[in-house]
Amino acid sequence: NAGVTQTPKFQVLKTGQSMTLQCAQDMNHEYMSWYRQDPGMGLRLIHYSVGAGITDQGEVPNGYNVSRSTTEDFPLRLLSAAPSQTSVYFCASSSLTGTYGYTFGSGTRLTVV
Amino acid sequence: QQPVQSPQAVILREGEDAVINCSSSKALYSVHWYRQKHGEAPVFLMILLKGGEQKGHEKISASFNEKKQQSSLYLTASQLSYSGTYFCGTASFGSARQLTFGSGTQLTVLP
Questions:
Q1: Cα of A18 to nearest chain B Cα, Å
Q2: How far apart are CA B101 and CA A42, in angstroms?
Q3: Whose C-alpha in A14, A19, A20, A29 is 20 to 30 A from the C-alpha of B71?
Q4: Chain B residues whose beta carbon lies within 8 Å of the beta carbon of residue A48
């Protein structure tokens, strides 16, 4: 089925560990982004990309890295996990025009202990 | 800057109407509306573009007042399936693809 696939769905990390959240889409969307969702704060933009090889920072980029080597994949790396990074992470994609809205992945629930 | 949504929560009986508002301090290029059910991903409802007309399908519609940088989502004759959290996402000129989301409006429809 066409869409955005995120893995893993759940993850528990210890403080200081690193990990990569995977995101892949098969809709040939140029635009991809990562959001974190915390209670009462809506969705906040971490990083985004407008195409392979092009990435930029969003509202809350500290502690996260991204790369975009292909149109399909947009992984999010946590460099050294902190309890403040406990959150639900969503990957989203859209066409560059954005006129059909974002398609979101099912999310990754991350807990840092 | 995050758009402001109001109300934060609303409880309805099936068949009643609701309006959710979204207001931004920036000049807006577009406004998106999404619905998120508990434990699930947000799902796109509609987009309103600067200069565009009111959008809608079935009993959910929205408007966009460009001069006031405001959008409203209208849910008429609400159904149980309308329950969820509604988010507006706004894009400003110069960053038309980046959405900044409001904190959400929790809508509960009771039988």
A1: 25
A2: 6
A3: A29
A4: 97-98
